[in-house]
Amino acid sequence: VFRQRRALIRAFVGRAVQDAQFRGAALAFEHEVAELAGGLLLAAPGVVRHPDPPLAIRLAVAIVFGSMIASTLFGDVRQDFAQLDDDSVADELARNFLGYLSLDEAFGRT
């Protein structure tokens, strides 16, 4: 989806850089996503095996958002990223997210 709406997202990111209030709303959305993910993932104690689960969830969400923003702003400049279709990009980002949180085994992903 972020590739299809690259121009729109680029405009939002550009505005966020220049407008502190808009940037605050964008960061609040990212925080809300992290809170929702954290609520689900932390509901089962011991599933997130990272030493600091709440921090790791916030950082994992930031990494995914950052990857999408970088791709939106700069295009698919990395050949290994550019050759992936949207489903494969989603799979790789999910793999990264789950692996960072040490959740890959819990969700049957490697």
Question: What does it look like?
Answer:
This protein is mainly alpha-helical and 110 residues long. It has five helices and no strands. Helix 1 packs across helix 2, helix 1 crosses helix 3 and helix 3 runs antiparallel to helix 5. The longest helix has 22 residues. The radius of gyration is 15 Å and the shape is flat. It starts with 5 loop residues before the first helix and ends in a 10-residue tail after the last helix.
Largest sheet: none
Coarse morphology: flat
Number of DSSP helical runs: 5
| Residue runs with pLDDT of under 50 for 5 or more positions | none
* Integer-rounded radius of gyration: 15 Å
The first-to-last residue Cα distance is 24 Å
> What's the order of the H and E elements?
HHHHH
Helix content: 55-70%
Number of strands: 0
Chain-averaged pLDDT:
84
Question: Pairing-aware structural class of the strands and helices?
Answer: mainly alpha
